[in-house]
Each structure stands twice: as C-alpha cells, then as structure tokens.
Input
Amino acid sequence: MRMLKMVAALLAITASGITTAGNLVPALPAVKPAVVSVGTELPTRSPPISLLGSGFAVADGLHIITNAHVIPPVLDHDRQERVGIMIIQGPLKKFRYAKIMSIDQTHDIALLKLEGEPLPALELADSDSLKEGQSVAFTGFPIGMALQQLVTHRGMVSSIGPIVLPALRSQQLDVKMVKRLRDPFNIIQLDATAYPGNSGSALYDPETGKVYGIIDAVYVKATKESAITQPSGITYAIPSNFIHELLKSSGVSSK
Output
C-alpha cells in the first residue's frame, strides 16, 4: 500500500508538470474525453468490474481501440462476464458494454464496438510521417483498478525500428518469435515511462492530438527484449497505420 501511494504521488506530480509546461495544453481537452479504461464485468465477482488496460475512441466515437492482450482470451459466458469500458471523468464513473468486433493478433490491436451514445473520437495520423526526436504524449489509466485516474505523460520518439531482433541462442526461439522474424514490422520506441494499465493508451501529437500509435508493453517486450534476462523500462508503441488497416478490414471509416 505504501508503494502504491508513492507511485500515485509520482504520477500526480508527472501529470501536473506536463499539463502546465510545454505545448500539451491545446491537445488535452480534446484527448481526455476520448480515453477510456478497458476491462470486464462479472456480476458474481467482487468487485464485479476488473480494469485491464486503456483504450480510446476513434471513427464515429462508438469504436474503441485497445491492445489485443488487454482483452481476456476467454470470457466466462456462463456467469455473464462481458467486455466493456469504464468512462472516468473525475468523480464520475460509468461502465459501458462493448462488443469485440475484430482482433489483429499480429500487431496486438483490438477493435471494440460500444453500445449507446458515441464518445468524442480521436483522429488517426499517418504514422509513417512520425520522426525520431519528435515530441509525443500518451494518456491512459496506469495501475487502472488501483488508481482509476486519467494520467498524461510526455516524451519523445527515441527510435523507430523492427519489432524483433534475432535471439542470441536458438533455444530462445519459439513459434511466435519465428513468425515475427518472417514478417517483421517497425515499432516506435519512446523516451518516456509507461506503467501497468497504460497498454492501449493513445500515443499522440501534443499540439494537435492526432494519434501516431498505441502504447504496448507486454506484446512488444516479449519479442523485442527476448534476449534480455530482465526486461527494460523502455516504452514502446504500435504505429497507427496498423489501426487504419484494422478499421478498413472491419468496414469502419477512420475519417
């Protein structure tokens, strides 16, 4: 509990420093209403809602993008477990059900469809235009269930390169690693710190709010840092052009 309070204090300091310094002020009012926490509701569980990661609204505001690994591979349908999002705006909290529309396991992206009224949506940028050294920001729900607080972090693009590097030893290769070696793609490496629960956060331009990618820790680290005994604290993101592709293949306009 003491450690949790220390982390919460650090996040609060970071968030307050970011929003008062630099050029994040123009983007935040548009970004924050579009960011949600993603999880499941199981009526017989205590507490019934479990928040597993972050996500953000795109397209018509009824479609939510998050990481595929944030969505449980199996739901307890017999006990009425359902996927949904938690909208947290200050003291106001509301859980809304969502349908899993499509999952791109290769790039660890999931597309959900909301029920009810649309949310403000974020605009997707062309991630091919992102440059190393460019300033970026991401907003999400670190340590989701514990804090239930929307937090923004700022950093820069430190590198853009392939998701997978050859393992130091053949024993480190598994089926997933071999597949990614055969079909590699570039990811975004950041000079910024993400926390558990930030997976699924939008990575965006701090001035315009346009989304360049989606924060991803679990999936990328399992591949990029497979040769490291202790994974680093580096933060990674999947480029937004893969989100464009998922929306297109699902029949959803990203405009």
